[in-house]
Amino acid sequence: MSVQSQDAQRPGFWTRITDSDIWYSFKRSKITIVAAIVTLIIFLSALFAPLIAPHDPFDLATLSLLDSLTPPAWEEGGDPRFLLGTDDQGRGILSTILYGSRISLAVGFASVVFAAVLGISLGLLAGYAGGRTDSIIMRIADIQLTFPAILIALLIDGSVRGALGGIDREQSAFYVLVVSIGLSFWVQYARTVRSSTLVEKNKEYVQAARLIGLHPIKIMARHVLPNVMGPVLVIATINLALAIITEATLSFLGVGIPPTQPSLGTMIRIGNDFLFSGEWWITIFPGITLAVLVLAVNLLGDWLRDALNPRLR
């Protein structure tokens, strides 16, 4: 059979996806489909916020204090221009939610990527090298596990801000949050990858790579890493929800994103100051958005964990 005929009979990319067990599992779960749709809507709304938001909450030229604390449009005293009302600075809640979701998702994604890269690298090194290297990395991980993630993030956040000194807090807030949250989540990746590496490094394909003289870094990157990525994807999905919650918690405590560029957590903190005076919409709508987003991502993570578990197939 010629090469061209073999290529013609080879299934395409989308055919392989639709014929996979994961796609079959996805189609069977109505809850997962709804969670995926909700997550996609929030992601796209955040991504295209400049195009679909009624107002730009960061453009000071368009803000007016006369519009501050305006109730939702269906309430008495509401303004049709602001469907979900406004906050204390006259920013539309709907527009601020769209822009704030961008910041929350950006911090979540960046911190998960940072934690994954750090944790996977240390996990591969610990599992493949073994000995004293393994002991040092795992003892550091064990020590960190004795502290709650939010406490680690607060400690790192305070330390980094103190080390930065005179650098503008608003300019560094995003990067400080990413580093703080990422350093509080790397342990899960490291422990999982280390356990899988301890199994994979004794298999024949790794032994063969050693015999032909491949460098250990190439062996870890080309041979071991692809075979330990399944659990990592599950951890990353679940940690995305945790990272968003952690960012919201830090912002609520006043050490996260500044009020001038509010995330969902910052909006909830601002609204909390006005909750008991009757301006409930400032905190309720961002809170609902945050809860729905985290719930949807968690449901996707639970499904992915079950779909990648060979014992449940």
Describe the structure concisely.
The chain has 14 helices and no strands. With 313 residues, it is mostly helical. It has one domain (30-312): MetI-like (MetI-like fold), CATH 1.10.3720.10.
Question: Please, could you describe this protein's structure?
Answer:
- It holds the Pfam family BPD_transp_1.
- Residues 101-301 form the ABC transmembrane type-1 domain.
- Its main location: membrane.
- Residues 1-8 have low confidence and may be disordered.
- The chain contains 14 helices and no strands.
- The chain is an all-alpha fold.
- The protein has one domain (30-312): Orthogonal Bundle (MetI-like fold), CATH 1.10.3720.
- α4 packs across α14 and α8 crosses α9.
- The chain is elongated, with a radius of gyration of 24 Å.
- The longest helix is centred in the middle third of the chain and has 37 residues, at 93-129.
Can you lay out the helices and strands and say which pair or pack?
Elements: H1 3-9, H2 13-18, H3 21-28, H4 30-47, H5 49-52, H6 93-129, H7 131-145, H8 149-164, H9 169-200, H10 204-211, H11 216-224, H12 229-252, H13 264-272, H14 281-307
Helix pairs in contact: 4-6, 4-14, 6-7, 6-9, 6-12, 6-14, 7-9, 8-9, 9-12, 10-11, 12-13, 12-14, 13-14
The major pleated sheet works out as:
none
How many structural domains? 1
Quickly give the structural class: mainly alpha
CATH homologous superfamily caption: MetI-like
Low-confidence stretches: 1-8
The CATH topology assignment is MetI-like fold
% residues in beta strands:
under 5%
Please identify, by name, the CATH architecture.
Orthogonal Bundle
Please estimate the helix content: over 70%
Give the beta-strand count: 0
Number of H/I helices: 14
Taking all Cα atoms into account, the compactness measure Rg is 24 Å
Mean pLDDT over the full residue set: 83
Spatial gap, N to C terminus: 35 Å
Which class in CATH terms?
Mainly Alpha
